[in-house]
Amino acid sequence: MTAAPSAQRYVRLSGEEFRMRLREALDIYVAAMNYPPGTAEQRAPMWLTHVLREGWRAVAALDDDDRLVGIAYGYRGMPGQWWHEQVRRGVTDREGEQTAHAWLDDYFELTEIHVRPGGQGRGTGEDLLRMLLDGVPDGRVLLSTPEGDSRAWKLYRRVGFDDVLRQYRFAGDPRPFAVLGRALPLD
Questions:
Q1: Is 156 known to be catalytic?
Q2: Is the pTM of this model over 0.85?
Q3: With 66 labelled, which of 48, 166, 170, 175 sits at a CA distance of 20 to 30 A?
């Protein structure tokens, strides 16, 4: 007899709740991205400072034992933030300043969205995405994702994300990334 899938619930996290679950969230991030274990220690301080940014919000998927299954968070993108400046430079270089302004003047940065590898392919990522973006006042949402065929790519295309910048290499990471965006609200 096979066990029934565990129940799952979705919750919004306060900054304090996010801090309390940081280790769990980073474990999911490292596993989902297939990063080396030391990555969590490098990312922890950055994730904690993101909580302080304007418009920050986070959502989580929890199993019936209250364990984290998935995590998503983001905030209002603004000049001076590392990701914003990297993307602005890339879009400006390839498409011009007008295109950069069109995408980057009023957007929410979907900073992280990850589902524990054993729980992927069950709609959790889309549920997290929709819950995170519900009620975001910005005109657009932007994100970056490694290039390549993945469940994440299928999700982003399914919910209407378009190419903003392709084959982009962020400072400090040799992999090519795509920057994707779409208007808000989601349909």
A1: yes
A2: yes
A3: 48
From the candidates 29, 73, 156, 168, which is the catalytic residue? 156
| Per-residue model confidence as pLDDT tens digits over 10-44 | 999 999 999 999 999 999 999 998 888 889 999 99
C-beta of residue 142 within 8 angstroms of C-beta of residue 87:
yes
